[in-house]
Amino acid sequence: MFGINYTKFDPMKYVIHYRNGKIINEGKGLSLFYFAQNSSIISIPLNSQDIPFAFKINTNDYQTVTVQGQITYYINEPLKINEQLDFTVNKYQQYVSDDYEKLTQRMINEAQTSISSFTQQESVTSILSKTGELEAELNNSLQDSLIINNLGIEIMSVSVLSIKADPEMQRALEAKTREALQKDADQAIYDRRNFAVEQERKIKESELNTEIAVEHKQKQIVEKKMETDLTKQDNESRLRKIEMESNLVLEELNEQLVKLKALNIKHEADARGYSLEAEMKAFKDVDWKVISALNQQEQDPKNTIALAFRELASNETKIGNLNISPDLISSLLSNEANV
What we know:
Blueprint: E1 4-8, E2 13-19, E3 22-28, E4 31-35, E5 39-45, E6 49-58, E7 64-75, H1 78-82, E8 88-89, H2 99-119, H3 124-127, H4 131-143, H5 146-150, E9 153-165, H6 167-283, H7 288-294, H8 301-314, H9 326-338
Antiparallel strand pairs: 1-4, 2-3, 2-5, 5-8, 6-7, 7-9
Helix pairs in contact: 2-4
């Protein structure tokens, strides 16, 4: 009524009341009456704002990629941004200018400049896998931007949601990736088979080494057995040699003993012969008849008869007739048989 209006703002709005170009009142969430003819009301939003973006950027190999993401910010110095942009609202709290959209565009331009600077240094294949690096680069770039700092804006977060090539390039990259994956799969199969062959070779080599070790051990056993046999034969040969030497010494001693016995027997025989010869010398010139008569006491009657027949035989020329009765001969023979 009469050009006087009443308005009320929520706490997330920073309100500045100008009257005739001078600030009359300012603060968060103000409620005020003002005269519309000489007053201007500035409403600066303090709540955080999200700006989604999607840019088509060229890489250094002249391929196009689409970068999608979001920037979250808030105005922490409303007086500073008020000096550069117009946030005047009407009685319905609607902005009377498009400066609010300019703020969003300036933010997008800064983001696009930073992203373009990053992607033009990368190839299409490398940029697709560098979402994190691009996000960090974009955040640092916006934090350091003079335009944003001069507007009194605080960057809360930057998110890069996706980096995509155009559909045709995407299919080509997918085909290349499939080929690479197939190649990796083939390489894996080859490596697995090669590993299996290598393991088989190692097993065969181990078996051969085992056989060689066994043969070597058997050879050592044979050599040791031969060495033992040779040692045994050598010991047996030495024993036989020692035995033969012992037998030879015994034989030599036995020979000496036999010779000594023979010499003793000879000496005994010589002694008996000398004794007998000495005894016989006493009877050398004595008639045998005398000797026989001397030995008659010990003589056998048959010897006496034999001597008698010998006497008869020696005097055969002097004997005319000799009668020997059968009884005598029978008696002689009977006595011989009894003897």
